[in-house]
Write a structure and sequence with these properties.
Layout: E1 11-13, E2 19-21, E3 25-26, H1 33-46, E4 50-52, H2 60-70, E5 78-83, H3 90-104, E6 109-114, H4 122-134, E7 138-144, H5 148-157, E8 164-168, H6 176-184, E9 188-192, H7 204-213, H8 217-227, E10 231-232, H9 239-245, H10 255-262
Parallel strand pairs: 3-4, 4-5, 5-6, 6-7, 7-8, 8-9, 9-10
Antiparallel strand pairs: 1-2
Helix pairs in contact: 1-2, 2-3, 3-4, 7-8
Length: about 280
């Protein structure tokens, strides 16, 4: 198996040719402006080039501010944001995008996602994303929290296939069927909550594998993501954690390690079920 990720700047190539860094910083639950600015600047200093936010996180301004202050050229950074459920629909999505862009202080976004598959709305929402894409306002478009049936439903009508599907993904929820479906259709899978919000960090299997390489359970999980060809965006505000989460490129899990981690799957979610959410 060819290892595709040897450094923090290595990228997955989306089906339209756009390059998306395999590892990024997620900023969910960072509502304090100073905290988000610090975290994003720290990540960019360490060498991260991929930041994932969303309208509902209420921190797009802080992310934009950090990018400005970082001194890293805009074109070197991959920025994702997402349209929230209450803004879904064609016109409202176009308006929501303008608001996000304004808050971020940017001219374009690298990836714009439909945050959840809101029944009866996500197709219209996605049509708005296609328009933004054709206009060059976003470099790539996609979805988040879509199951296979949502993707099939969307792809029956859309003009431009989603480039990314960002879902809850970790060793207890390895989503094998969804992953295979996305691969088959050239849709890049991306993991949110890759560390299951810390719930996996005392798992004996992960601790044992980590000991072999002098790595933490978190680093083992993130390496597993990468070797499964899943883009991953661990979230942290602590500088030492942001740095540790990026220290993944000097070791490689064996096929046996990968199988042991796969065996931890229990189809167990920490977030809402995409077939049954009410927000």
């Amino acid at each position: 198996m060819k290892i595709l990720q040897n450094s923090l700047q290595d990228c997955a190539t989306l089906h339209n040719g756009v390059k998306m860094p395999w590892l990024g910083l997620g900023v969910w639950k960072m509502e304090d402006r100073e905290e988000v600015i610090r975290a994003v600047k720290t990540a960019l200093e360490i060498g991260y080039r991929h930041i994932d936010t969303a309208a509902i996180y209420k921190n797009e301004e802080g992310v934009g501010q950090a990018i400005k202050e970082s001194g890293v050229p805009r074109e070197e950074i991959f920025i994702t944001t997402k349209v929230w459920n209450s803004d879904q629909g064609y016109e409202t999505t176009l308006q929501a995008f303008e608001t996000s862009l304004q808050k971020l202080g940017l001219d374009y976004v690298d990836l714009y996602l439909v945050h959840w598959p809101v029944k009866g709305k996500y197709k219209e929402t996605y049509k708005a994303l296609e328009k933004l894409y054709k206009e060059g306002r976003v470099r790539a478009i996609g979805v988040s929290n879509f199951q296979i049936h949502h993707l099939e439903d969307l792809m029956a009508d859309c003009e431009i296939k989603p480039m990314v599907n960002q879902v809850e993904y970790h060793p207890r929820l390895s989503q094998k069927e969804l992953h295979a479906f996305c691969k088959k259709h050239g849709i890049q899978l991306e993991a949110w909550s890759p560390l299951m919000q810390g719930k996996l960090l005392d798992d004996p299997t992960l601790i044992e594998i980590g000991k072999k390489y002098g790595k933490s359970p978190a680093q083992v999980i993130l390496r597993w993501d990468l070797q499964n060809e899943v883009v991953t965006i661990p979230k942290s505000v602590k500088p030492h954690r942001i740095k540790e989460n990026a220290d993944l490129f000097d070791f490689e899990l064996t096929a046996e390690d990968m199988e042991k981690i796969d065996a931890l799957n229990k189809d167990e979610r920490i977030g809402p079920d995409p077939d049954n959410f009410d927000f």
